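Extended Data, panel c. Modelled sequence:
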Amino acid sequence: MVSFRFPFSFSQPPRPPVSAAANASSRPFSATTAALSLAAALSVTGAGIALSQNSNSPFLQSALNFFVPHKSSSFPMWGSLSLSENSSAVAESRTGMSFPVVLGDSQRLLGVGVRRKAVLGLKNIDVYAFGVYADDSDVKKFLGEKYGALSASEFKGNNELKEDIMESDISMTIRLQIVYGRLSIRSVRSAFEESVGSRLQKFGGSDTKELLQRFTSQFKDEYKIPKGSIINMSRERGYVLRTTIDGNEAGSIESKLLCRSILDLYIGDEPFDRKAKEDVELNLASLLNK
């Protein structure tokens, strides 16, 4: 079976040592013993919360864990991961939304981020968390010869690499997980009309209204998207954009321009989440330097 070798780990801090008093099994149960047990539990829980709140980027944190690993961890290592295993996941730190490390048969998670939107110009809300995936073999096939010898620092902000990712026929998926519980499919459709529409005009000129309408019409009013709903937008081979909503196929459109416009929202010059784009670059470097 094919397997990936992932260089990073996602680990918790080591558990604090349990006091001798808490380990004394010969002592009868008492209020003092109960208090010590409760304090130990709160200490472990607090440590886990502190890690999730202080880690702005799980990928950068994992890189640190790789070079200075903890001796014990309750999370799976990004070691040898079979493609048939989908239990290993990465949580987006700000929303807690979980993304599988491997999607489908061979697409590897490269970065996670959040789409935020201002409400009445006063408050930013987390609309959805997203994960960026790319097919392992496609990345090496289309980018390996040109970029395989570059160092990780040479990947950051590399515009030529960004262009090659969006132009090459690499199978990729943008996976959205709804965070804002009051979001309607009509709001999603309207948001894509604005964001995707601007990218279509940027790359294809003004004569793109029909293509935009074909894409946004896939988000029909019949779909309900409560918190936790999943929207996958996948660029399949031949530049076919396939959209699914909670596993139901919404439609597919063959268009290199549309595929590029969607990807530009997340890894382009003005991405929704710059930290996520940096994570994508970092993990592409790791993938190509193997």
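Residues 160 and 166 are 10 Å apart (CA to CA). This feature is highlighted in the accompanying rendering.
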